[in-house]
């Protein structure tokens, strides 16, 4: 009988000690889409603009997943910066982004006005062309003839997709042999810029007058793969003219 009492007493002590233990708090990361900005607030039908989300996150940003949506038009790209192409119908359209790490999420929405006429002139250099994947330093080069400048800041807009290549690459751009973009790592391996790289570069200090210019995009890939890298689009915003590929 005494042994039973002792056992019960010991069990009560164990239960009491266990009950006094403090719960280990669960640490949640902080996630907030603090801003969502478009390069232009008003665009013409069929025109494109860049939209970028500013995200505050206390965890590892590489785990974040971005979901973009719009009430009209098309969104191209992934990650925090995408390209929005306006529909062919004027109106006011919403663009939304939701960001999550799988446990918590945050979102934000903006509105853009689409007008009947383009608000800014632009010159399409090329669209949907793969780099040839023939040399250690691949290139796409264009003979661009500029017949009109808007008088405002001239921007070189481009979108490049990592297609079949599984390794990151290095991208650089020259205009008439002058560097306007030093080598930058692009791609989704590290990741550097993600699967799709979207940038706008001010080239007003290089293209100042009407005339002919040679614009060359160089890629130094980690692995030469056919259809490895795709130039989705390149255009000069603030100029009109023509563009022909060079051999």
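Q: What amino acid sequence fits the structure above?
A:
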């Amino acid at each position: 009988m005494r042994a039973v009492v002792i056992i019960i007493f010991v069990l009560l002590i164990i239960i009491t000690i266990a009950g006094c233990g403090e719960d280990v708090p669960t640490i949640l990361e902080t996630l907030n889409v603090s801003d969502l900005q478009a390069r232009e607030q008003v665009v013409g039908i069929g025109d494109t603009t860049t939209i970028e989300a500013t995200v505050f996150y206390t965890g590892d940003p590489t785990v974040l997943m971005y979901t973009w949506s719009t009430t009209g038009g098309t969104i191209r790209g992934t990650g925090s910066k995408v390209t929005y192409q306006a529909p062919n119908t004027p109106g006011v359209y919403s663009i939304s982004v939701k960001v999550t790490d799988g446990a918590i999420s945050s979102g934000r929405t903006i509105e853009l006005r689409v007008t009947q006429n383009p608000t800014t002139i632009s010159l399409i250099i090329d669209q949907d062309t793969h780099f040839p994947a023939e040399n250690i330093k691949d290139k796409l080069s264009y003979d661009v003839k500029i017949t009109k400048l808007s008088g405002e800041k001239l921007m070189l807009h481009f979108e490049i997709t990592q297609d079949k290549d599984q390794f990151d690459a290095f991208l650089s751009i020259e205009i008439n042999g002058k560097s306007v973009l030093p080598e930058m790592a692009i791609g989704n391996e590290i990741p550097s810029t993600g699967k799709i790289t979207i940038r706008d570069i001010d080239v007003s200090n290089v293209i100042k007058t009407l005339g002919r210019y040679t614009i060359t995009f160089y890629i130094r890939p980690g692995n030469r793969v056919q259809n490895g890298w795709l130039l989705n689009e390149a255009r000069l915003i603030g100029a009109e003219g023509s563009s022909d590929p060079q051999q």
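Q: And what stands out in the fold?
A: The chain has two domains: 31-115, 122-245.
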